[in-house]
Structures are given as structure tokens and as C-alpha cells.
DNA sequence: CCTTGCCCTGACGCCGACGTCAAGGCTTAC
DNA sequence: GTAAGCCTTGACGTCGGCGTCAGGGCAAGG
């Protein structure tokens, strides 16, 4: 099949496919006219790439999976290199989530304080010092 | 004080300050020599900006807080516009966290399946179909 | 006098994963 | 014959928040 059809069947764009090819991730054979030619196995590779991308993997991180499939393994994650990527990504996600949760809690706390201060505007009283204290993110 | 000192006292760089100024966020008076001049109130504004940035706010999102302070309010979040930003950010963070958690769980599930499949290589058996199903992120 | 250290403006670099436009070619359908 | 619709390569645009030159100025200290 040609690039347009492959893109459609994988739910992506021709631009993305050419980009993957430029990165050496999904090379294509060429017909006489110079047009790219793909087959069903390419569709499998592409779907693997897309599935991983959708879960937040960078393109480079999908490479082991693609090569694993291309090597004839039943699944992209049948190879140790793929498992390693899974584990790194898992740790990365956990870290990210924790960071976001901490940020979320700080914002929630500030919001509560600020709302209270606004409600207590008329009665007057002490000045609750705001300023989110921490750093990072 | 001059730009270098302000940057140091707020734990940032002169480049960042010039950038904020270019965005109209933290304008500066100028001395005869054309050098930027700041005072303690600028330091407060800058610290507000930094605190918010550190929790994941975009520059534009800090603007209401800065203008609130500049308007003479005791805290950057003493104004309704700031509270609105807090709330939007809170919702945004919640959404993001949920997305990441979902992704994390998918990856964890895949990893488990793949590890099991690898362990059961010799005994042979059915082919557990992998491929993370969903979309998005 | 010269170095050091601060300041200035302007402008390109970066990162990722493409979107989008430009300019053109081939094939198929009418 | 020609318009439609596919394909080709090349190259610049996007988004945020600066980093990092490049090129130059001004002032104080040795």
C-alpha cells in the first residue's frame, strides 16, 4: 500500500510517516515511480509506535520495540531492551506524577488560604502570609 | 539595585529578567546610563513570579498575581483574577495527573504481561496479545 | 593605561513531533 | 485534454522560557 493508506489505517498522517522514516524508525521500499511502498508488517510496526506514543513514549523510546518486532518476535515487548524501556518509563512517570501531586497540593492549599482571607476581609485581623514556599518542578 | 543583584536575590538570571520585561511582566526604570533600576517592591513581584513558575504556572498565568501586587494588595492572590487562575490550574493539574496515572497503569500492566510471557518462554502456550489498546495523551 | 566586571541590544539555538506551504510530477477518471 | 487526487523533496513555523553568543559601552581599581 501507499503512504496515504498506511497513514489512514494507523490513524496518523503522511507527514508523521515521512518523519519516522527520516529518523530511521520506519524505512520504506520504493516503487518504480519513487513512491513509498508498505505492507502489513509495516502497519504492525507503525501501530506499535503509535500505541507507545499515545502512552507518552518519545520516538526514540519506541525504537527497541520496533526493532524487536522486525527481528521476528511475536510482540514488540518480547525483548529485554523493550522491558528496560518499560521500567525506565514507569519510574519516570512515577516521578512526574509525584511532582505534579506535590504542585497540586501546594496550589490547593494556597487557594484555600486565599479564599479564607478574602472571606475575612471585612472583620479584619492578622495578615496570613502567602507565597508558595518551595522550589522546583 | 541593578539587574544582576535582583536576579541573584531572587535566585534567577539576568536573562530571565530581561525576558520578563520584554513580555511586559516586570518593567524596569532606567538610570542615566541606561541601566535598569529595581527596588524592593520589584523583588516581591519577581519572587511571586518565581514561586508560581516553580509550581508549574506559565508566565502569562502569573500576570494577574503580579498586577494584583502592583495594585497595592497585600498578596498576589488577593484578587479574584488570581483565584480564578488558581482554580483553572488546579483543574489542569488534576486532569494531567489523571492522564499520567492512566498511562502509568497501562505501562505497568504491559510490563507485567511481558515479563510473564518471557518467563513462560520455554513451557510454550497461547500467545497473549499485547499492544496497549487506548489512545490519547 | 589596562584589566575586570558590570551593563546594554540583537539575534540565533534548543527541544519534539510534527504542521504547513511551495513547487512540481505522475496517474487515473471523466 | 484536463482536472482531481495521489505522490515527491525541501524548508520554514510552532510552542516556552530562556541559554548563549556577538559586539560594544562605561566605570572603578591596580
Walkthrough of the structure:
Chains A, B: Residues 1-68 form the HTH merR-type domain. Chains A, B: Residues 83-117 form a coiled coil. Chains A, B: This is MerR family transcriptional regulator. With 137 residues, chain A is mainly alpha-helical. Chain A has one domain: Multidrug-efflux Transporter Regulator, Chain: A, Domain 2 (Orthogonal Bundle), CATH 1.10.1660.10. Chain A is 61% helix and 3% strand. Chain A contains 5 helices and 2 strands, in the order H-H-E-E-H-H-H. Chain A has helices spanning 3-10, 14-22, 40-54, 59-70, 80-119, and strands at residues 29-30, 36-37. Chain A has a two-stranded antiparallel ribbon with strand order 1-2. In chain A, helix 3 packs antiparallel against helix 4. The longest helix of chain A is centred in the last third of the chain and has 40 residues, at 80-119. The first copy, chain A, is elongated, with a radius of gyration of 24 Å. Mean pLDDT of chain A is 90; it is low at 122-130 and 133-137. The interface between A and B is large, with 46 and 45 residues.
Amino acid at each position: 500500500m501507499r503512504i496515504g493508506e498506511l497513514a489512514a489505517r494507523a490513524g496518523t498522517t503522511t507527514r508523521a510517516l515521512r518523519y519516522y522514516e527520516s529518523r530511521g524508525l520506519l524505512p520504506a521500499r520504493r516503487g518504480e515511480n519513487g513512491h513509498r511502498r508498505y505492507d502489513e508488517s509495516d502497519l504492525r510496526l507503525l501501530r506499535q509506535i503509535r500505541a507507545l506514543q499515545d502512552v507518552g513514549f518519545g520516538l526514540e523510546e519506541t525504537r527497541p520495540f520496533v526493532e524487536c518486532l522486525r527481528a521476528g518476535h511475536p510482540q514488540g515487548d518480547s525483548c529485554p531492551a523493550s522491558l528496560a524501556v518499560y521500567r525506565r518509563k514507569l519510574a519516570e512517570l512515577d516521578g512526574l506524577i509525584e511532582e505534579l501531586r506535590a504542585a497540586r497540593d501546594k496550589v490547593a492549599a494556597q487557594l484555600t488560604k486565599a479564599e479564607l482571607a478574602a472571606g475575612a476581609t471585612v472583620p479584619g485581623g492578622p495578615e496570613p502570609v502567602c507565597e508558595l514556599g518551595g522550589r522546583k518542578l
